[in-house]
Amino acid sequence: MNQMTWINLLSRKRSGVSQIEQKEVGRSHFQKDIDRIIFSSAFRRLNHKTQVHPLPENDNIHTRLPHSLEVSSVGRSLGTKVGKRLTDELKCIEIEPSDLGDIVQAACLAHDIGNPPFGHSGEVAIGDWFRANADSDCLKDLTKAELNDFQNFEGNAQGLRIITKLEYYLFEGGMRLTYATLGTFLKYPWTSDLLGIAGKKKYGCDRSERGILTEIATELGLIQQYETGWCRHPLSYLMEAADDICYASIDLEDGIEMGFLTYDEVTDILKLIVDFDKIPPLHPNCEGNDLLNRKIAIARGKAMNTLIEGIVDTFIYKKDALLNGEFVGEDLIGACGGRVKEFIDTAKNTAKEKIFNHPRKMQLEIGSHATIATLLDAFIGSAYTLHRVDSDRLDARFKQILNLMGSYQPKKDWSLAHSYLHVLDFISGMTDKYAMNISRQIEAMNK
Fold it and tell me: What is the DSSP secondary structure assignment for residue 230, as one 8-state letter?
């Protein structure tokens, strides 16, 4: 049986660069990845994109940026601790435990970078629009495969496009990250062709980046399981676990802040994994809600430590299965079992029941669907019209809309699918507020 090897999986080579770059003083190859992601405009825009609650008025509520930073912090701990446990296996390839921490941290920083405005609601809205308009003139000439990507718009796949094509070196490697980081970032290293096969509900690569996916998988030695799909990089499971830990714990605190959950409800969940009696007394100045908030924050930190240790133990226990590509249909938290799984499951189910389905949140999401529909009507419609008429005969309204796209503006000689990809690059890159503002301008233009 083929087994993936750490010497390939931890490749320092970079996408878009023919040779390994020299190591800088004070900055490893993988720390460069971290810096390139943090200083990118796509990462910066996450500060104004929905995490769970669209357009919250409360500044304490998480957006995608603090969430990504928190996930990266947990991911760094997971990677470093796993690296420490693998010291004997890694020393012969000159990899330090901290290198694994840096790789997982970089992947965690980028894990949501492809999310459109309004978070997962925005993803659904984009797919819904392409399904609702499948028989329209502007979409009827697309191939079934092209339409499939659009109708199942996936932020993970858009993220791969951003980091490998759109940021920094446009269409020449993008951020030019190491293959180790790219592989760890790929939570779903397969295309939309595999949706519904072997229980696959998501995908991580559009047809337009299929060549890049193959390049990454080949460089890392990922085990191919389908014509357009490979097994996951072992470290991607640590990225996934870091995301789940933060979702489960931080969503609870946001739920209190938004008034969707009570302190007692959150405390009861944390007690599944934390002994509150061991939390030391706080300063007497702490009273009321301030005291409760601080206790929950301290308990959450203790819960995270327990979760991290459990996941690291499970990763080492399942190491051979991970390297053989046999850890399929599982995640590390599920494999942990016990109180780790019980805590995460209970937190997620509570969030689903009392936060995600709260009427106030659902009302805001209805507005986000309308905003996305207005944007797609305008920009897809303008791109389609550009293909049907001579540029000098293009209506001024269409010209104005296309000019808003700047460097993403499609060209007349492009295919429709290529033009629409650029429209989605532009719209998915919008912040929540910018999407709302542009939508209002378009609506005013139509009056």
Answer: E
Ordered DSSP codes for 313-373:
HHHHHTHHHHHTT---S--HHHHH-HHHHHHHHHHHHHHIIIIIT-HHHHHHHHHHHHHHH
pLDDT per residue as tens digits for the range 354-370: 776 666 666 666 778 89
Q: What span, in angstroms and rounded, lies between the C-alpha atoms of 5 and 444?
A: 58
Contact 440, 378 (CB under 8 A): no
Q: Helix (H, G, I), strand (E, B), or coil: what is residue 24?
A: strand
The pLDDT value recorded for residue 125 is: 94
State the greatest distance between any 2 C-alpha atoms of the chain, in Å, as a whole number.
75
* Predicted pLDDT of residue 339: 92
- Residue-wise pLDDT tens digits, 85-105: 999 999 889 899 999 999 999
Query: 196 - beta bridge partners?
Result: none
CA distances to 162, 191, 285, 325, 417 from 194, in Å: 22, 6, 57, 17, 20
Among residues 282, 278, 118, 127, the alpha carbon closest in space to that of 195 is found at: 127
> Cα separation of 379 and 360, whole Å?
29
* Strand pairing report for 229-230 and 224-226: antiparallel
Question: pTM for the complete prediction?
Answer: 0.93
Q: What is the spatial distance between Cα 341 and Cα 333, in angstroms, rounded to a whole number? A: 6
Residue of 12, 50, 9 lying closest to 31 (CA atoms) = 12
Backbone phi and psi for residue 331, each to the nearest 5 degrees, phi listed first: -130, 165
**Residue 255 and residue 250: Cα distance in Å, rounded?**
9
Burial class (CB in 10 A: 0-12, 13-18, 19+), 85: middle
The DSSP symbol for 165 reads I
Phi, psi of 330 (to 5 degrees): -125, 165
Query: Which of left, alpha, beta for 213 (phi over 0: left; psi -120 to 50: alpha)?
Result: alpha
